[in-house]
Design brief:
Blueprint (H helix, E strand, L loop, with lengths): L3 E4 L7 E10 L3 H12 L4 E4 L14 H8 L13 E3 L21 H11 L6 H15 L1 E3 L7 H12 L5 E2 L1 E3 L25 H7 L3 E4 L1 E9 L2 E10 L6 E14 L5 H8 L16 E2 L3 E7 L14 E3 L11 E5 L4 H7 L4 H8 L5 E8 L11 E4 L5 E4 L4 H20 L4 E3 L7 E2 L7 H4 L9 E3 L3 E2 L25 E3 L14 H19 L1
Parallel strand pairs: 1-8, 2-3, 2-11, 3-8, 4-21, 11-23
Antiparallel strand pairs: 5-7, 6-14, 9-10, 10-11, 12-22, 13-16, 13-19, 14-15, 15-16, 17-18, 19-20
Helix pairs in contact: 1-6, 1-12, 4-12, 5-10
Length: about 525
Amino acid sequence: MPGTYADASTWTADRVLEADVCIVGSGAGGAVAACLLQKAGLRVLVVEEGGHFSRKDFDAREDHAYPNLYQEAGGRSTKDGGIAILQGKAVGGTTVVNWTTSFRTPDDVVEHWQKHHQTAALTPSRLAPHFAEVERRLGIEEILLAVANRNNRLLYDGLRAIGIPAEVTRRNVRGCRQSGYCGMGCPYDAKQSMLVTYLPDAVEAGAEVVSRLRVERLVVAGGRVVSAEGVRLGDNGRERVGRATIKARWFVSAGGAINSPALLLRSGLGGAGPGGAMLGRRTFLHPVVAVAGVYKEPVNGFFGAPQSVASRHFSNRGDKIGVFLEAAPVHPMLRALATTGFGAAHAELMKDTANTSAHIGLTIDGFHESETGGTVTLRESGAPVLDYVLPERVWEGLRFITKTLCQANLAAGALWVGTAHDPSVVIRSAADLPALDRAPYAPLRMGVFSAHVMGGCAMSDDPARGVVRSADLRHHAVENLHVIDGSVLPTSLGVNPQLTIYGLAHLHASELARAWK
């Protein structure tokens, strides 16, 4: 029989829930795992702290989307406020609000993990059939360049004009209407997020999905999780209105990097024991910087696929940190937040929004011994906080990105290009480029953000170097606890992470389904 969706904010009393498998989180990892485990005949319960929204709720309003669909209402940041972090919080997780870009994990990244992080059980050939199956289910295909909006086409043309190859991306869409508002939830269900694919598949097979229920702690005794303690949230997702206890044979943490490490820390799994030393450590962000080019003709970067062009030409820069280049949408609120300055000066810049491009570069952190990433700890309230101090290698990469994207926009015909510095550096010609070397590259002097959070529960077959095993993503010290989300990645990826997480989840859930059944 089909399962159900439930909203814990509507319950009039506390409850005890039971299942074979409790999955905490409904995003890329949790939804795929739920589908495969439920179809194998196990009783699956998916618990999600966010609300359950659908296409009728997605009205392209940023003031609605950020409070409803993002962690901390879109205001999540690192401890020093130097890096803004965009992560989803809803049934379907970040897949509801990401920009659909879908790259497989590069083979050389998987091989690096094997060599440097003791992940012997994970190989490119082992992942390949699972990527293929996910791509089939989610309609992941390479787009046509002719479909790219002007914002992306300017990046493509500008990079090629200065001798840098660019490529089109692959997207998880079917019947895309090119609305451009992927980051606010797709009002057409064209984006093949977990909200409209693997989660409905799981529910149709009998799974239960409960929203507005935050798991605060796993109760561990005798090397096993015996139950989970949760708090029921009100219909705005903030106030506590009650509690719930969950009992299951197996538990899967799939809340994403930052939230999964925090859950395990609240459960007392940090410290010197197996899998504890690295809990919350080596969290990577693909730290990102943007430039804005202003053109004579409209760009209208708020319409069309947000990301349809990219360049991975600089993924390997030898001794320097690798970078990759993409485009970003130009929505009014996002543009306002990313634009430096105040008052009349800020308002004047906003007048050019329709004629503005937004191009970004991501640094590929975690591959050099000096790049240890960030550390997740807990606030007094139990909420997570990420401390991430950008090393000089990353700042050099951000300098390189800024100069490269300024050159590309000038080559594409920009009247001028503004940087993310405070105050912004204005580049009108090649003669102005030396000013970029004198500009401040430091926290809160340059806007840096991330939408890709990885690590914190890294996989490694060495219990002193990782939290979970590479063979099955099982916790080193807890027999019935697995972590299946982006937190298990030992480094960043050098590509957008959603397909990597889908593939890992499909691989491990397939094998766990056989073992547990």
